[in-house]
Amino acid sequence: MSTVNPKFEFLCRMGDNALVLGHRVSEWCGVAPVLEEDIALANVALDLIGQTQLWLGLAGEVEGEGRDADKLAFHRDVWDFRNVLLAEQPNGDFGQTMMRQFLFDAWHLAQLTALVDSSDKEIAAIAEKSAKEVTYHLERSSDTVIGLGDGTEESHRRMQAALDLLWPYVGEMFLGDDVDAAMVEAGIAPEPESLRAGYDQLVGDTLAAATLSKPEDDFAHRGGKSGARHSEHLGHMLTQMQWLQRAYPDASW
């Protein structure tokens, strides 16, 4: 921790979560099942990218090395990203995308709600603005999970398969480390584990309404928050997301 700025790391985590998931959701643009979903997914992606600008912009200021949000987004390599592994998982089918969104949204809103009371006024302001958007994200994703889970035999099967696939990535969001401990001590952010009970209640109620069975195994993949380990999917995603900026460094319109 002697060479790490905990606040910078925390801001990158918040920004990278929004950036990576926002890019994932944007991959549906033009190919969603119906026009209404195409527009809705695009709006969610835009919200997340807007939040990225705020989190990474502040991270750049805290770092003090001249990197703005664009530099942090487009000129870091895979091992420098601090997003949770859930956010980088592939879209799969529409049901898998919406299950991933719901599992993330339920945590995201809880985290932002807690950050509204942060001792850091800039972080609190970003959280307050973002929470308004994420409230809509969660409402939409939970309704979709219920509709598809308690829908046809085929939609139910797909949603259960998506839940089984993605559940092992949920636990990482609640695992604390030295960065989290420093944020808690400074009154900036909540203890990750403190959000788990509320999350489990919300997710459990939603899955029950969707007639889906929560996996019993609580195994949790980890490594994304610290950059120690990412899945191969993030590298492939970054080659698409960053290629223009890497091919033409510092280009401007």
TrEMBL record:
Q: Which InterPro entries match?
A: Aromatic_CoA_ox/epox, Ferritin-like, Ferritin-like_SF, PaaA_PaaC, PaaC
Tree of life domain: Bacteria
Residues annotated as signal peptide: none
Q: Which PANTHER family match?
A: 1,2-PHENYLACETYL-COA EPOXIDASE, SUBUNIT C, PHENYLACETIC ACID DEGRADATION PROTEIN PAA
- The entry's protein name is Phenylacetate-CoA oxygenase, PaaI subunit
Phylogenetic classification of the source organism: Bacteria, Pseudomonadati, Pseudomonadota, Alphaproteobacteria, Rhodobacterales
